[in-house]
């Protein structure tokens, strides 16, 4: 935890807020109730969309069963955005990357990598995030 901001000035507000979050996280870990947030990375529009949605649900359940909190934006954003519209697609990818920064790990499922998945993987690598790869049968590679 750093007391100084990016410009080198003391930032007590940010320091206290981040310190409080860390204390709560440590407390939750000790109590056994801590669940890290993971980003579910799997295809959406390549191939059969209905199959891809069912797979993303299955992958999310897999994460829950292992005591993680899954974030699968491709299950949420298509409810109110159109992936075939350029502006919606760009906005959704931007929001995907914002959500990815809130996660502790990226979980990649299957062998096929869509352009969106490739972008998410590159982003996670740049942020030095833990990336785990799984088969469609939910076995870690």
CATH superfamily membership of the largest domain, which one? Hypothetical protein PA1492
Question: Based on helices, strands and strand pairing, what is the structural class?
Answer: alpha/beta
The CATH architecture of the largest domain comes to 3-Layer(aba) Sandwich
Output the helix-strand order. HEHEHHEHE
Main β-sheet, spatial strand arrangement: 2-1-3-4
Instruction: Name the average pLDDT.
Output: 91
CATH-assigned fold name of the largest domain: Rossmann fold
Distance between the termini: 34 Å
Task: Count every helix, treating DSSP H or I runs of 4 or more residues as helices.
Answer: 5
Indicate the low-confidence ranges by residue numbers.
none
Radius of gyration: 17 Å
What does this entry look like structurally?
This protein is an alpha/beta fold. It contains 5 helices and 4 strands. The chain has helices at 12-31, 49-65, 73-76, 86-101, 115-126, and strands at residues 37-41, 69-71, 105-109, 130-134. The protein has a 4-stranded parallel β-sheet, sandwiched between helices. Helix 4 packs parallel to helix 5. The protein is globular and about 50 Å long. The mean pLDDT is 91.
